[in-house]
Design brief:
Distance between the termini: 53 Å
Shape: globular
Number of helices: 12
Helix content: 25-40%
Number of strands: 12
Strand order of the largest sheet: 2-1-3-4-5
Length: 420
């Protein structure tokens, strides 16, 4: 009887895992069918000598160990590279724990630039975001999810904070904090809005790509033909301190804006659904891997400079809609943004590559041609000897330091975190 119960549970867990993987694999199947047909044909390995701008080759050893085609060291994106290393390591470990990892060589090109991939290649091209949905490449979770278990812990902590803060005790204001950068036109539009009723708690917190916040505001003002009055109001009232995400659930409204560097994705959005608040998303064209599951009017409401105030006003008067959107945000968090869905997304890609890339070619190319260029954070062995990546310490940070690095807690001093 106990054996039957064990078998039943194992089958149940397998069915849940497969259901989660299928829910995130439709576009994965479409991508491989469109770019690498027929389904049994060989797929080229990533050429580490020809990476796209802002990208690199990643090679996965049959054992699951990770090799980077090059070391970003002090280049823009070095933090993202090491965070991605950590995510992949934890994802692969979880797949191996479930005995679902198949021992084949796999490789792909990944682009860390927020604007996304610009061209398809002979090998799979992955990106963490796209400025426009029409761009080539397949989307994967951005590295600021850190790892499945780390992300689940973050969600649980956020939900606990939310549960401790009743709706009636929350401020009826809208919260946004973010960097000012060369692609921050939408954010500048937000900062320009008059706020005579003090409904907005919004502000720039740091400069991305400029020496100071003031320099960024002045550059955007010139680009957007803003008035001196706008500039004065922004410099006086819209340069604000960081708000730790543990305080987000003190607000009823949370706003997502396009990213600071190019106006593409911003990692801020993935953090907004677990705070028991109403999520508003500024209209934009950028996409991430989970955006196709977001439904306006169910999980969030879209806004822009013309509709933000009317939308907030209507919501404040409509308790039923408030409850509907809060419940929708929580359901989205539960159904699409937890750790098992991060694993499932990667697992569907690994499965698509199983036994479709040469084993001997990769060994020759990486172990011989890539020596001196490739790096790893894995332990060195007789059959696995590469230079150590310069920033491997990022992959071993304690949770509190990791939270500061990715910007969800208050930094101890001003810094320039990896842009999103």
């Amino acid at each position: 009887m106990l054996m039957l119960h064990y078998v039943y549970l194992k089958i149940l867990f397998l069915m849940i895992a497969l259901h989660v993987r299928w829910s995130h694999s439709e576009d994965v199947r479409a991508y491989f069918e469109q770019n690498f047909s027929p389904s049994h044909s060989q797929i080229a390995h990533c050429d580490l000598l020809r990476p796209q701008k802002g990208g690199e080759c990643i090679y996965l050893h049959p054992s699951g160990r990770i090799i980077h085609g090059r070391d970003f060291i002090n280049e823009a994106g070095n933090g993202k590279q090491m965070l991605m290393d950590l995510m992949l390591r934890k994802v692969i470990a979880e797949i191996q724990r479930r005995q679902m990892w198949k021992p084949y060589w796999r490789s792909f090109q990944i682009v860390y630039a927020a604007s996304g991939p610009m061209r398809q290649s002979k090998c799979p091209v992955l990106g963490i975001g796209k400025l426009r949905p029409s761009q080539p490449g397949l989307l994967v979770p951005n590295p600021f999810f850190v790892s499945p278990s780390w992300w689940d812990n973050y969600l649980n902590q956020s939900l606990e904070f939310s549960a401790s803060r009743p709706w009636n005790n929350r401020t009826n204001r809208l919260l946004f904090r973010g960097a000012c950068g060369p692609g921050s036109q939408a954010r500048f539009n937000l900062m320009q809005l008059p706020d005579t009723e003090h409904e907005l708690d919004v502000g720039f917190t740091k400069a991305d790509g400029y020496p100071t916040l003031e320099a960024c505001v002045l550059a955007l003002a010139k680009k957007m033909n803003a008035t001196e009055s706008d500039v004065h109001r922004i410099l006086l009232h819209r340069l604000k301190s960081h708000v730790p995400q543990s305080e987000y659930s003190n607000y009823r409204f949370l706003l997502h804006m396009p990213g600071s560097s190019t106006g593409s994705y911003s990692r801020n959005l993935q953090h907004l659904f677990a705070h028991g608040a109403i999520v508003l998303i500024w209209k934009h064209s950028a996409v991430e891997w989970y955006y196709s599951h977001l439904k306006p009017g169910i999980h969030y409401l879209p806004v822009d400079a013309h509709t933000l105030y009317p939308t907030m006003s209507a919501l404040i008067k409509n308790q039923r809609m408030q409850n509907h959107l809060r419940l929708g945000a929580r359901r989205f968090c539960d159904e699409f943004l937890n750790g098992r869905h991060l694993v499932a997304r990667w697992e569907s890609i690994f499965a698509a590559l199983e036994n479709r890339q040469s084993n001997t070619t990769t060994v020759d190319f990486v172990l011989r041609g890539g020596r001196g260029r490739a790096c790893t954070c894995e332990p060195t062995t007789a059959d696995f000897s590469f230079s150590k990546c310069a920033k491997c310490e990022v992959t071993t940070l304690k949770p509190s330091r990791m939270a500061r690095l990715i910007g969800i807690t208050r930094p101890t001093k001003p810094h320039h975190a990896p842009p999103s």
